[in-house]
């Protein structure tokens, strides 16, 4: 378990950044700063420019005094422009003066344990760091701002109101008090259940940020898929050949898009009939990968004169989000491209984006279309979405189940059992922010963090 009386330190900046940020938090923070910094005023709060004596380098120190810091205890950030060797020398000095290396997520864990943030907000810190697109980032920021806690509190108050009405019936049944209207209670239960379902439906699964969304490139053999993969990734990831069936396995690479990241993959060209066992195995791998893709880019060679095979292959796949593109447009004239695009639309019943990996035609438009599809898919179509972890979703689903059971007991006339189910639902929602939580659960939550956060 985390020890709050230790002074912890860690590098909290990216390893590829020229500016190094070293965090220091705990009861020895001021003493350690006094040892390493010249002209440092121990009781000062704010920004101080000083020289780190042991490494003979200027630094900016941001000091936050407890209890007003992020962690709730004395916290400092040392900002300096240094290489790895100098940074390691500074860390060794801090450790020799009594600090210890922070474990993953320990700074945020301290903020939670010192009641600076609730557990949902603590989890949000990691979701902000791992967000792979702008909508996931916005949802994580909503979680960090306490939006889930506010929504949970509102729903808990509704449950508490219903619970008090039921218990008044039970505790004062002999008194001259008008009993609570059963239909009214059931209506309120349904309203509360709908609020919970809306929260789940409008949320973003934050775990998806750990596994980037997959975008697959599909089509018949020799449709230009491998060339397109290499072009989009900006490097030679796949072997390009005029010979059919060159790609046998699923080849992947991480694609950086404006406001979004994804895993882009190319797989074996799809066939209407497998000729060999190798063809069959390649087909199975390709179809499985396409089935799991969030978006599929379907390639058709516009320079061909017969697209019967492409039409048959298109019928084999049915992805949720499909982008149809016409490849190899550099092999045709502008007029020829326009004529064939019209013919493709007639045959397939949809528009095709003209693309050439060799001349860069349509590449930027394709990237923009992939970005739009991914963001639309992960956004939940609302700017008010909240990033929910598996733990959050489990608590919400359990609360919905308990409310459904309470409604059944009300209809059966068992108000005491209904009250018990409502108490359980209330406790389930309290689990989202609670501070009395199992140590193993805390360890599991913060182990997903990186060092220095």
In short:
This protein is an alpha/beta fold and 453 residues long.
Structure description:
With 453 residues, the protein is of the alpha/beta class. The protein folds into three domains: 8-117, Probable tRNA modification gtpase trme, domain 1 (Gyrase A, domain 2), CATH 3.30.1360; 126-203 and 386-434, Up-down Bundle (Four Helix Bundle (Hemerythrin (Met), subunit A)), CATH 1.20.120; 210-379, 3-Layer(aba) Sandwich (Rossmann fold). It is 46% helix and 17% strand. Helix 3 (106-113) packs antiparallel against helix 4 (119-130), helix 6 (147-171) packs antiparallel against helix 14 and helix 7 (182-201) runs antiparallel to helix 13. The two termini are 17 Å apart.
Map the helices and strands:
Layout: E1 8-11, E2 19-25, H1 29-36, E3 37-38, E4 46-52, E5 57-64, E6 75-81, H2 84-96, E7 100-101, H3 106-113, H4 119-130, H5 134-144, H6 147-171, H7 182-201, E8 204-205, E9 214-219, H8 225-233, E10 251-257, E11 260-266, H9 277-292, E12 295-301, H10 308-316, E13 322-327, H11 334-348, E14 353-354, H12 363-379, E15 387-388, H13 390-411, H14 415-430, H15 439-446
Parallel strand pairs: 1-7, 8-15, 9-11, 9-12, 12-13, 13-14
Antiparallel strand pairs: 1-2, 2-6, 3-4, 4-5, 5-6, 10-11
Overview features:
453 residues; alpha/beta; Gyrase A, domain 2; Four Helix Bundle (Hemerythrin (Met), subunit A); Rossmann fold; 7-stranded mixed beta sheet; 17% strand
* Known CATH architecture of the largest domain: 3-Layer(aba) Sandwich
Q: Which class best fits the helix and strand makeup?
A: alpha/beta
* Gyration radius, rounded: 29 Å
Give the CATH topology of the largest domain.
Rossmann fold
* End-to-end Cα distance: 17 Å
Largest sheet: 7 strands, mixed
Helix-strand sequence: EEHEEEEHEHHHHHEEHEEHEHEHEHEHHH
């Amino acid at each position: 378990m985390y020890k709050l009386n230790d002074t912890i330190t860690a590098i909290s900046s990216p390893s590829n950044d020229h500016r190094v940020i070293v965090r220091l938090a705990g009861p020895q923070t001021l003493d350690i700063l006094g040892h390493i910094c010249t002209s440092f005023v121990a009781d000062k709060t704010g920004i101080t420019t000083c020289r780190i004596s042991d490494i003979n380098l200027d630094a900016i120190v941001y000091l936050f005094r407890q209890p007003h810091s992020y962690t709730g205890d004395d916290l400092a950030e040392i900002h300096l422009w240094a290489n790895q060797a100098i940074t390691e020398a500074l860390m060794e000095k801090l450790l020799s003066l009594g600090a210890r290396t922070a474990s993953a997520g320990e700074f945020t864990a301290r903020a939670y344990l010192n009641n600076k943030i609730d557990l949902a907000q603590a989890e949000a810190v990691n979701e902000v760091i791992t967000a792979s697109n702008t909508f996931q980032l916005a949802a994580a920021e909503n979680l960090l701002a306490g939006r889930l806690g506010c929504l949970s509190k509102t729903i808990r108050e509704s449950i508490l109101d219903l619970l008090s009405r039921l218990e008044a019936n039970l505790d004062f049944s002999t008194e001259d008090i008008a009993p609570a209207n059963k239909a009214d209670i059931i209506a309120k239960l349904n309203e509360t259940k709908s609020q919970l379902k809306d929260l789940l439906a409008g949320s973003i699964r934050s775990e998806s940020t750990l596994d980037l969304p997959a975008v697959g490139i599909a089509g018949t053999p020799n449709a230009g898929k491998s060339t397109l993969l290499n072009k989009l990734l900006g490097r030679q990831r796949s072997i390009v050949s005029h010979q059919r069936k060159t790609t046998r396995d699923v080849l992947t690479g991480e694609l950086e898009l404006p406001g979004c990241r994804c895993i882009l993959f190319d797989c074996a060209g799809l066939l209407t009939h497998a000729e060999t066992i190798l063809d069959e195995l390649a087909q199975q791998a390709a179809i499985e990968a396409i089935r799991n893709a969030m978006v599929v880019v379907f390639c058709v060679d516009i320079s061909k004169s017969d697209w019967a095979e492409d039409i048959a292959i298109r019928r084999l796949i049915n992805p949720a989000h499909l982008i149809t593109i016409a490849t190899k447009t550099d092999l045709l004239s502008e007029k020829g491209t326009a004529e064939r695009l019209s013919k493709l639309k007639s045959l397939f019943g949809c528009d095709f984006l003209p693309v050439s990996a060799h001349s860069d035609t349509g590449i930027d438009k394709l990237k923009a279309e992939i970005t739009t599809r991914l963001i639309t898919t992960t956004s939940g179509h609302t700017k008010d979405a909240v990033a929910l972890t598996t733990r959050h979703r489990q608590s919400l689903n359990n609360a919905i189940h308990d409310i459904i059971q309470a409604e059944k007991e009300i209809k059966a006339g068992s108000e005491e059992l209904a009250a018990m189910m409502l108490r359980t639902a209330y406790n389930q929602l309290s689990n989202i922010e609670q501070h009395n939580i199992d140590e193993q659960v805390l360890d599991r939550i913060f182990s997903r963090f990186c060092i220095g956060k």
